[in-house]
Amino acid sequence: MIRKFDSLRSVIVLALIAVVALPAYTCLFLYPSFIGILSENAKEDALRVASHLSGEHTAEHPLLMKDSISPHFLHEMENIQKDLKLAKLKVFSSSGMILFSTDPKEIGEINTKPYFRDIIDKGRTLATIVKKSSKTLEDKVMDMHVVETYVPFTKNGKTVGALEIYYDITKNKERMDGLIWQSAALSLLVSLALILFLARSSFKADRTMRDLRRAEEELRALSLTDELTGLYNRRGLYVLGDHQLKLAVRRKKGIYMLYADLDNLKEINDSYGHQEGDNALIVIASILKAAYRESDVIARIGGDEFVAVPLGISGEEIDKMICRLKERISEHNTDPKRKYDLSLSIGTAYFDPENPSTIEELLAEGDIAMYKEKKRKKGEA
User: Fold this and answer.
1) Euclidean distance between CA atoms 351 and 246, whole angstroms
2) What's the predicted TM-score (pTM) here?
3) 264-281: b or e for each residue (b if 16 or more CB lie within 10 Å)?
4) Per residue in 184-203, pLDDT tens?
5) Structurally, how many domains does the chain consist of?
6) For residue 5, what pLDDT band results from cuts at 50, 70 and 90?
7) 341 has catalytic annotation
8) Domain CATH number, residue 125
9) DSSP code string of 88-116
10) 3-class SS of residue 185
């Protein structure tokens, strides 16, 4: 009887420790860890969006000076801010003068701070998290959580200006806070249940861990980037691809979407293991990045499926681009160290600005064209 009492007392003591330890673990360890993940993802997303905009507009506007800013350029920057739902967007000349800002009162001001000169003089990209009610690098107090990002505009290796983006992460942070505190509350309830329902303690603890894992998975899903290849993921394609389509409508220029599928990925996984299958996907991603421009949207949207949405490519040019892709893959296959050959089945879909279609419709059209190519290959084999 004494042994049973001692055992029960030990379980109660452990349960009481759990009541304190689990919420403390959530607040002191999990929450800061999740904040770190959100910050890194947001920084990466902001840098990719800024680099995308920088690459897209530098070619069109090689010099950034007060007298060279056209009404069309200003209109385009306003549209970019609306399309990507940015908190703020600015364009600086190399002297630090604000040539464009979503806050018109700032136009004409000059940024003389050391960090800005470092960006211009050394061509460095800068990104920092600014919490709500905190000051930015420009000494402005924010009423939202943002990533403050600076990306230099370069032409022929010379910095001609800079782009500033305030990337709003308030919604994602509040969503993450809700997930974290929901998990903390659930941890507390489960811990208290250990005292009242000792027989169900193990089940409750497992339930808590499942909820925490699900919260972490939802947090990672907020990113625009595919973790394996470094390309955009499906969410990134929808965010930036939609901007490309809107830009095509405004410019009245069609876009070709390239839809590619890595052939025989299952056979590679079965024969050489999944790590080798991942290596094959990474190689294909690097070939795609080498064949396209930095301003083009390239994404991995499934296990072995890739999509590219370049701007300003004609039908003849898209055929040449496909040929270059196949040539690069053939060059890779000549490496004597390779264990297997790589190949892509490729289909294209056309976006007509006079008769606009959605990303989903273009993906469906490209998927059909890709499978026709795959069937043709099997027929030849």
Assistant:
1) 11
2) 0.56
3) bbeebbeeeeeeebeebb
4) 777 667 666 666 665 555 55
5) 3
6) very low
7) no
8) 3.30.450.20
9) EEEEEETTSBEEEESSGGGTT-B---HHH
10) helix
